[in-house]
Design brief:
The chain is an alpha+beta fold. 24% of the residues lie in helices and 26% in strands.
Length: 594
């Protein structure tokens, strides 16, 4: 049963802790900041955001595909673990400040154990003498039902939940809400729902909140971090974290606290919108956001408006993040210096294979030709031969493997040495995405007084489908071209989704967009990045953003935890593309950095 605001009814919304449930003094705007983009982000960001200026809500994103695996291994050692310990220490430092300033805290730091983290937060508050109302969101953990749902053998199995559970907790007076595996954008959607009273059918408003949440979820990436044109960003030594000023109609302004480093521009926001997406439809549990509808405007220094966002009913299924332990891995890197690099590599391979008493289940060799002819330093005269092994038996690829490599030191190729001493094997896991009907998942808001309220899933759903191709601008007229790096004109941002990667490329002018829309095809992309030549690549065009997005299937093997590739999260894939030479129109190169 829901109230008129689309939230679960409960008897405690008007009695919990005798607190005001308004999240902002302004009924038309809510200011939501972010202080963490991953587990390991800047520790001081929570205090910096609380002290730096006006906020209504402060969020923190601590979870990623790899993080869930790490927390799963923590929980194997200690059943009471499974949450982000950093967040607990940040609250020890800044919870009092948040309460004093009336800023609500919403974070997915609960990981695999949000109830355990909520209990620890209550202990922290009691130790500090603080009256803090702590709530959490549960129901995402499907591991107890893994076999029943077809996920047998999983280490972790967590459904991605939406923002209405967070909203229920905030409406019940919570000062801090911790969750498990909600979508990253839900950390923003939840407070917006609670403040504005949006209902599940308010698709355009919800989609606007998802777009804003997607922009600020990765912290300083929205304020100049990892930005292609980073030399244009002021004071990147210590960039500020982003803020979304959300309006009742779902539009927003992305900004940051005054006086902080970095910058918020149409470019930095475009880059983040293109990060880790697939096509035009961006599915969330509460709404499917049409990213091809987003319009960006520079509304002033460090202020970018997001408007025109169209939402559709969410899909009937929820995504599930699965992690499985798949055995052990180890590696050794041989340094090959000077002449006859390939012959030295061949000898190292033959000698190591001959010296192994047991053959690993898999062995991969990669020769990285970082060497230069007639080099003026030893390092630039050297190449790396990397050998990666995997096996179910840690002993097979432990010291027995790395020791066999080191034993070649005096009998191998001239100049033999390796980059690290012998090491033991380490466990590795594989992330996969699965899907379940939403009805299989019970979304629960555990309010500050302990009452458990079931959050209904949306009644109206729509099966996710590919959007039609947009109308592209006219080609640029023919003109003189020069061979130059693509990145002199175009920006790029890349990232991982399991074993796949995406590369978003954007133009900064209408003329450059006319070139990009027609010239950077899938065929040209594969030619520029030969590692993708034999893989399935899909291109999606975003005229409003003057951008194209490429989804490269399988380039990361089994995903980041398996470390199947030099850059296992594809963070540098976009920069590699920008470094490739193409024939660019002279008119586009004018004024570019050289």
């Amino acid at each position: 049963m829901t109230d008129t605001n689309g939230l679960p009814q409960n008897g405690s919304q008007n009695r919990s802790h005798n607190r005001s449930h308004s999240l902002s003094q302004n009924p038309d705007i809510i200011r939501i900041g972010n202080a963490s983009g991953f587990y390991g982000d800047r520790f001081s960001a929570v205090r910096e955001m609380l002290e730096g200026g006006e906020l209504d809500v402060l969020t923190g994103d601590y979870l990623a595909e790899l993080t869930m695996l790490i927390l799963g291994r923590d929980r194997m050692k200690n059943p009471d673990a499974g949450y982000a310990k950093t967040f607990l220490r940040q609250m020890e430092d800044a919870l009092g400040l948040a309460l004093e300033r009336g800023v609500k805290i919403v974070a997915n730091a609960g990981g695999l154990n949000p109830a355990g983290l909520a209990d620890k937060l209550r202990e922290v508050a009691a130790k500090l003498g603080l009256d803090a109302a702590i709530a959490h969101v549960a129901g995402d953990d499907l591991l107890p039902r893994a076999a029943e749902l077809g996920f047998a053998g999983a280490l972790t199995a967590n459904a991605y939940l939406g923002g209405f559970g967070i909203a229920a907790c905030l409406r019940a007076g919570a000062d801090v809400v911790v969750t498990g595996r909600v979508t990253d954008a839900s950390l923003v959607v939840g407070p917006a729902v609670a403040h504005f009273g949006w209902q599940p059918a308010d698709h355009d408003r919800l989609a606007g909140a998802v777009a804003a949440g997607h922009v600020i979820e990765c912290g300083a990436q929205a304020t100049g971090g990892n930005y292609a044109f980073f030399t244009e960003i002021p004071d990147l030594r210590h960039p500020g974290f982003p803020i979304a000023e959300l309006h009742a109609d779902g539009s927003s302004v992305i900004t940051k606290h005054p006086g902080t480093g970095g910058a918020v521009s149409v470019g930095t926001v475009t880059a983040q919108l293109l990060y880790e997406i697939t096509g035009h439809r961006y599915a969330n549990p509460d709404v499917t956001t049409r990213l091809d509808s987003v319009t960006l405007t520079q509304d002033g220094p460090d202020r970018v408006g997001i408007s025109g966002v169209v939402g559709e009913a969410p899909p009937p299924q929820l995504k599930v993040a699965l992690n499985k332990l798949c055995g052990f891995r180890n590696q050794v890197e041989f340094v090959l210096t000077g002449l006859s690099i390939e012959s030295k590599a061949d000898l190292a391979k033959e000698q190591l294979l001959a010296g192994l008493t047991s053959a690993p289940e898999s062995i991969e060799w990669t020769l990285v030709r970082t060497d230069q002819p007639d080099a003026d330093t030893e390092e630039t005269a050297s190449a790396l031969l990397r050998c990666v092994v995997r096996d179910q038996n840690a002993d097979t690829i432990g010291r027995a493997f790395t020791g066999a490599a080191v034993e070649l030191a005096l009998s191998g190729y001239p100049g033999f040495h390796v980059t690290a001493p012998p090491g033991t094997a380490s466990p590795y896991g594989v992330y996969t995405a699965a899907y379940v009907d939403a009805a299989e998942v019970t979304h629960v808001a555990v309010l500050p007084d302990g009452e458990r309220v079931v959050v209904p899933h949306p009644d109206l759903t729509l099966v996710l489908d590919t959007a039609p191709d947009p109308v592209l601008p006219q080609r640029l007229p023919a003109e003189e071209t020069h061979l130059a790096p693509l990145g002199l004109v175009f920006g790029a941002r890349s990232g991982d989704k399991g074993g796949d990667a995406n590369v978003g490329v954007w133009a900064r002018s209408d003329e450059a967009w006319r070139w990009l829309a027609h010239e950077l095809t899938v065929e040209r992309f594969k030619a520029l990045l030969p590692e993708t030549a034999d893989l399935d690549v899909t291109r999606h065009a975003f005229p409003n953003l003057r951008a194209v997005n490429f989804v490269v299937e399988g380039v990361l093997g089994a995903g980041v935890a398996s470390q199947a590739r030099f850059d296992p999260q594809a963070k540098g894939l976009g920069e590699w593309l920008r470094a490739r030479n193409v024939e660019l129109p002279v008119s586009l190169l004018k004024g570019s950095e050289r």
